[in-house]
Specification:
The chain is mainly α. Among the domains are: 100 residues, Hypothetical protein, domain 2 (Endonuclease III, domain 1); 56 residues, Arc Repressor Mutant, subunit A (Orthogonal Bundle), CATH 1.10.10. Helices cover 54% and strands 3% of the residues. It is built from 15 helices and 3 strands. A 3-stranded antiparallel β-sheet has the order 1-3-2. A hairpin with a 2-residue loop joins strand 2 and strand 3. Helix 1 packs across helix 11 and helix 13 crosses helix 15. The longest helix is centred in the first third of the chain and has 17 residues. It is globular, with a radius of gyration of 21 Å. It starts with a helix and ends in a 6-residue tail after the last strand.
Length: 291
């Protein structure tokens, strides 16, 4: 077994956060819902929505038959509402292909709409206790620091990085699944991007980055631009649609985003994604208006 595994798993046993999708009574479906909700969204914003969602739609079959308008409304302000649509598509695929039971294999999970390599591996490990190479940003950062002595992992995941990570994952399912959640938690709570708490790290004595004197990254970490992007425009327009009590006029949308070309492009993408509906010269959200 790799020398990282024992200390990290032991640390997790006493330091892990008490999250509902880790509880003994959580279901594989609940784990998938949590993974989709947690994409680019902090835990603090997800937990209450996740609880409400699982109360309302505890199985894939429940979500598959739900009105899409209600699904989008329940997603609320989690952001990236396309995730809600993909999750419902995945639920329908589970019903159609797997008789309503979430499959356990990574291959079958990846075949579901909106489920990529990371999500499939995470569900296989966290829901079914299987050996999988779970590589999110937190795990990649821990391994880059400890094994490579680098402040940050490469900008893009490579086959070599995946193979190196696979070499650390224990061979048996139970220990491998425990390692996957433990090393992810270590990256989230201790080996953080901006303010790592190295004195609290269970593998500080094994860390190549620490031994090298904490060298800075070769380049500044890349961050995705936000201000002025189509993503920001979409968010502004959706905020107007969500708060409106009647279909929104072109003038109201112009107030939210003055750039006509970009506004039209952002609005067209909302319509194409099924998040908004045109009514002549006005627009309303797919899930309808309050009252």
């Amino acid at each position: 077994m790799h020398p990282l595994v024992g200390p990290v798993v032991a640390w997790y046993a006493v330091a892990a956060r008490d999250l509902p999708w880790r509880a003994a009574d959580r279901t594989p479906w609940g784990v998938l819902v949590s993974e989709v909700m947690l994409q680019q969204t902090p835990v603090a914003r997800v937990e209450s929505v996740w609880r409400d969602w699982l109360t309302r739609w505890p199985t894939p079959r429940d979500l598959a038959t739900a009105p899409t308008a209600e699904v989008l409304r329940a997603w609320g302000t989690l952001g990236y509402p396309r995730r809600a649509l993909r999750l419902q598509e995945a639920a329908r695929a589970v019903v159609e292909r797997h008789h309503g039971a979430l499959p356990a294999s990574e291959t079958e999970l990846r075949a579901l709409p909106g489920v990529g390599a990371y999500t499939a591996a995470a569900v296989a490990a966290f829901a079914f206790g299987r050996r999988a190479v779970v590589l999110d940003t937190n795990v990649r950062r821990v391994l880059a620091r400890v094994l490579d002595g680098a402040a940050q992992p490469p900008a893009h995941l490579t086959a070599a990085e995946t193979a190196r990570a696979a070499g650390v994952v224990p061979g048996d399912d139970a220990t491998a699944a425990r390692w996957s959640v433990a090393v992810m938690e270590l990256g989230a709570l201790v080996c953080t991007a901006r303010a790592p708490r190295c004195t609290a790290c269970p593998v500080a004595d094994l860390c190549g980055w620490r031994r090298a004197g904490y060298p800075a990254p070769d380049t500044r970490p890349r961050t995705q631009a936000w201000a002025g992007t189509d993503r920001q425009a979409r968010g502004r327009l959706m905020a107007v649609l969500r708060s409106a009590s009647a279909p929104v006029t072109a003038g109201e949308l112009a107030d939210a985003w003055p750039d006509e070309t970009q506004r039209d492009r952002a609005l067209a993408s909302l319509v194409a994604d099924g998040l908004a509906v045109r009514h002549g010269h006005a627009v309303e959200p797919t899930y309808g208006l309050p009252g």
